[in-house]
Write a structure and sequence with these properties.
882 residues; alpha+beta; 8-stranded mixed β-sheet; 5-stranded mixed β-sheet; 28 helices; 28 strands; 42% helix; globular
Length: 882
């Protein structure tokens, strides 16, 4: 997921296919697999060329203990026995190994078992492996969690990209699909959940045995098993049996009716859209702790990160929409990802981009949240624009050398730029044609693996078009283009109109794209729509003859309705118009896009941030659209993040603006006391911008119950946010407040929030402790807890403290990178390679970025990201007017 330059594109892994030579010839000359934790694409393709018809029989004995017992039988067909064969198994103790009925001594290096070719035979083979293993505590494999509230133990599996081997021996790569028959012995009060509904449950002594039928063919990363004394809810009103599971101690924070409603809406939409019945027999959704990601699309048994979907209070409109989108994203994967699966991990972007595209489409068309594409534009699409303009950008489709690199490029380009390109393609081809191409693809490759070319060819055949140039332009080249309207008017009418396209010098490709160009005029003080014209532009200049003769506009927007992935540079007249009239635009998607144009103008050097802050202060209180108000909340938080990074040079300005915006926020909390959604947004803004003692005193009083905001309930989540804010600003007694709150809320969530609050304290001893803790090989806290400290350790207002550790953190990066896994480094580099907004830090980062030999791609990119962010911050600071 997340290279190529020049006219000729050769990308290793883009079209991964079996070797052209016969399996026997290829394997005979194949070198031994490298003794390493990660499987290379070359090794994987060599193995899948020999292995087929795989069937796993999995037996597990589970308990409350930290170790589990397993036995696995693997039946397979082998093309030849001219070379050894490896089976992936991570950090287990092998008790016995039988190959085709013969007991053999395991040749095992803690990463994989090597089966000697002399023990293999051409055709059918059977491997029987009895083993034990420690449960994982890092969110991968078979993860174990002990609830601090009631001591109950919960297990769940997570295998993407290649962690099934942390639970059972397997050919852990996506293109060796297999069937799975599961049998589990577990404590009596536990549920066991997997891809299929259980066929029988048998009691014996203190345990139950759960037997499951054979699954359809699945890649290892799509299979799953979860177990524990979960609370279960059922819904039998839909077409398929649906269940929802969560820990018992958090059950009151679940709104099952909401979950089941969105689930039913999703099934109805996707079965109609794909024209294929749901591929599995039931649909389970499991909320789990310590999860590394938002959710995971395990076939028939989807897992969700608790942090995002538990609510210790009423659920806001924004939270409901987020839940609907996540449910629908994972459901889309049941077809696109589970039914048809990528051949290798370079296809992960398509898997995720398509699910992202479908979850916004289905949310907009099948739920109450018909503004979902506006949410997409405001959130994920802006992240993609931002990342695509950084020095860390990359093409959508890139090679993935090993399983260790599979998630190197999990980012907004993977999800949102890819989804934007698919949306552009649906507009370019026509949405009915696009849908037919998807249907053809899913039906042709059902229960198989497919490549990017298979996908594109299905669309091309449905459309009767050649999409090879489109694929080259969009998927194999990084960077975002810009367009601008260039027009002339005579006697109040347009006399010439062109679209000018440009590209950054480091990514100079010009693309073809189909967009709508819209004209607007000021009428009675409002900016009103006049005319829109669709056009396919390409190259540097494209004439738009259809607009000649139209009324001369006060504003032109050349990506109306947001079908294109392109940065819009407003012409001078349009820019002046929206600065004064943005709140008169009735079209809410357009208004959101115009707000983004103003924001972009700050980073582009056209508008000092002072002026942008003034525009925000002028218009934010008048905004009445919930989604756009969330957008403005993000813009306000972003400007205050910058102001904090600017340091003491802008201390007086920051203090003045903070006071002004705090006053606006307090006013908004009163004005919106009968609108809980807006009131919550403004309370979030207040917590971000408040630095003055008067506001901090009110926060402390809220915790004690001595101060209330009308109609706003300060639930436990809000309480922790206030505690963290007070700790961050070293409010008197903040340390005691943390301990008091922890006594009030000693749940898993409370303990994690307390860690974040403590880490945010400006106490140098606290910073020293955590920096040492992250570097330790025997840390006091497991990674799921360390993550909370990483994100809170150096808030933007603590630049002086951050500077004290910046050298040490960079100098130790290479050593930590060698010792810590990718799951750790993904959080570490973006939290602790610091973007302190000083010239000194920029030079430090530039020096470090020139010497990245031996660093993982994740660490290297973290350095470049911090360098880019620091450079951007300095640019915005220089443009500030005094």
């Amino acid at each position: 997921m997340p290279l190529l330059l020049g006219a000729t594109v050769v990308v290793a892994g883009c079209n991964s296919t079996a070797p052209q030579q016969s399996g026997a010839d290829k394997s005979a000359e194949a070198p031994q697999r490298k003794a390493a934790a990660y499987l290379s694409e070359t090794e994987a393709m060599r193995r899948s060329a020999r292995v087929s018809d795989v069937a796993y029989t999995l037996n597990f004995k589970l308990s409350n203990e930290e170790v589990f017992q397993g036995s696995t039988t693997i039946d397979l067909n082998l093309l030849d026995n001219s070379a050894d064969l490896t089976v992936d198994l991570n950090s287990a103790t092998i008790n016995s190994l039988k190959i085709n009925g013969k007991i053999v001594t395991p040749d095992y290096n803690q990463w994989f078992i090597t089966i000697d070719k002399d023990d293999l035979k051409k055709g059918n083979n059977r491997f029987e492996i009895d083993y034990s293993r420690q449960h994982s505590t890092n969110g991968e494999g078979l993860h174990r969690f002990k609830d601090p509230v009631d001591g109950k133990v919960y297990l769940y599996s997570h295998f993407e990209p290649a962690a099934a081997q942390q639970m059972f021996p397997s050919f852990d790569q996506p293109d060796i699909k297999a069937t799975y028959k599961l049998n589990v012995t577990a404590p009596k009060d536990w549920y066991v959940i997997s891809a299929q509904p259980e066929t029988s449950i048998t009691e014996s002594d203190q345990n139950k045995r759960w037997d499951f039928p054979v699954t359809p063919k699945l890649s290892t990363y799509n299979f799953s098993m979860h177990a524990g004394p979960y609370k279960m809810w059922q819904d039998t009103t839909g077409k398929y049996p649906a269940r929802l599971f969560a820990r018992q101690s958090v059950a009151e924070q679940i709104h099952p009716d909401m979950w089941f409603k969105f689930t039913r809406q999703g099934f109805e939409f996707f079965e109609q859209y794909f024209d294929i019945p749901y591929p599995f027999k039931k649909y389970d959704q499991v909320l789990v702790p310590d999860f590394l990601y938002g959710a995971m699309e395990n076939a028939g048994a989807v897992t969700f990160d608790e942090r995002s979907f538990l609510s210790r209070g009423s659920v806001s409109k924004g939270q409901q929409e987020s839940l609907a989108q996540t449910i629908l994203h994972e459901m889309a994967h049941q077809w696109f990802g589970n039914l048809v699966t990528m051949k290798w991990w370079n296809g992960l972007w398509l898997n995720e981009s398509f699910a992202a595209y479908m979850h916004y489409l289905s949310t907009a068309e099948a739920t109450e949240f018909d503004n979902a594409w506006r949410t997409f534009y405001i959130g994920r699409k802006q992240s993609a624009y931002s990342q695509d303009q950084m020095i860390t950008t990359h093409p959508i489709e890139v090679p993935v050398p090993t399983t260790g690199n599979a998630f190197d490029n999990i980012d907004a380009i993977t999800y949102a730029k890819g989804a934007s390109v698919l949306r552009q393609l649906s507009f370019y081809l026509g949405q009915d044609v696009f849908r037919q191409g998807i249907r053809n693809y899913l039906k042709k490759y059902a229960y198989q693996n497919a490549t990017l070319d298979d996908f594109v060819n299905s669309l091309a055949q449905a459309a009767g078009r050649d999409l090879s140039e489109f694929k080259q332009q969009w998927l194999y080249h990084a960077g975002v283009n810009s367009i601008e309207a260039d027009y002339q008017c005579d006697n109040g009418k347009i006399s010439s109109f062109n679209i000018k396209q440009s590209a950054p010098s480091n990514h100079p490709i010009l693309r073809q794209q189909h967009v709508n160009i819209a004209l607007f005029n000021l009428t009675d003080g409002k900016l009103a729509f006049n005319k829109a014209s669709p056009i396919t532009y390409s190259g540097e200049t494209t004439e738009v003859s259809a607009l000649i003769g139209e009324q001369c506009p006060d504003m032109v927007y050349p990506n109306y309705q947001d079908w294109g992935f392109v940065k819009v540079n407003l012409d001078e007249k349009s820019f002046a118009t929206i600065k004064s009239s943005i709140n008169t635009v009735d079209d809410t998607l357009l208004r959101a896009m115009l707000w983004q144009s103003l924001s972009d103008s700050v980073s582009d050097g056209k508008l000092p941030m002072n002026d942008f802050i003034d525009v925000l202060m002028t218009h934010a209180l008048n905004e009445r659209d919930y989604t756009i108000m969330r957008q403005l909340s993000g813009k306000i938080r972003g400007t205050w993040y910058y102001l904090n990074l600017f340091g003491d040079e802008f201390k007086d300005y920051r203090h003045e603006k903070s006071k002004q915006f705090e006053a606006i926020a307090w006013q908004a909390l009163e004005e919106f006391k009968d609108n809980s959604g807006f009131q919550r947004i403004w309370f979030g803004i207040l917590r971000s911008v408040a630095t003055n003692k008067a506001s901090l005193d009110k926060f402390a009083a809220m915790l004690k119950g001595d101060f209330n905001i009308p109609n706003l309930t300060i639930n436990q989540d809000y309480r922790w946010s206030l505690v963290q804010m007070l700790s961050r600003y070293d409010y008197p007694g903040a340390a005691e407040l943390i301990e008091q709150e922890l006594q009030r809320d000693n749940s898993d969530s409370g303990q994690k929030q307390a860690i974040a609050a403590k880490a945010a304290s400006p106490d140098p001893k606290v910073k020293a402790y955590w920096v040492a803790e992250f570097a330790s090989d025997t840390p006091e806290y497991p990674f799921p807890l360390q993550r909370y400290a990483m994100g809170a350790l150096f808030p933007s207002n603590q630049g002086d403290l951050a500077e004290q550790y910046a050298d040490q953190l960079i100098e130790s990066l290479a050593d930590i990178d060698k010792r810590k896994p990718p799951t750790f480094m993904r959080t570490y580099v973006y939290s602790l390679v610091l973007d302190v907004c000083t010239e000194k830090n920029l030079k430090r980062l530039e020096k470090a970025s020139k010497n990245t030999e031996g660093l993982s791609e994740i660490a290297r990119r973290g350095l470049l990201y911090a360098q880019h962010s620091t450079k951007e911050c300095l640019k915005v600071r220089r443009q500030m007017t005094r």
